Amino acid sequence: MGDDCTYCGCDVTVHDPVYVEETDADGRRVPAGRFCSYGCLAAHVEAEGLAAGTTCRVELD
User: Fold this and answer.
1) Strand extents, DSSP E, 1-61
2) CA of 54: how far to CAs of 14, 27, 30, 32, in Å?
3) Cα dihedral 44, 50, 55, 56 sign
4) Which branch of life, at top level (predicted)?
5) Domain spans of the chain?
6) Contacts of 12 by beta carbon, 8 Å cutoff, 6+ apart
7) Of 36, 37, 32, 59, the residue nearest 48 (C-alpha)
8) Whole-model pTM?
């Protein structure tokens, strides 16, 4: 995998990359993906349906 974009497979080092981490069961941060830019990250989220059923906490006064 090297420095390949998780979404498109291009070398992220020749772009302005975005790195994503997750928290594992032990509370440690672990790599979850690398992307050429926010565009590839957004396309990956859309293609994988990663935002489906999620929501941020919103409090309305």
Assistant:
1) 18-23, 29-35
2) 32, 21, 21, 18
3) negative
4) Archaea
5) 12-48
6) 3, 4, 5, 34, 35, 36
7) 32
8) 0.78
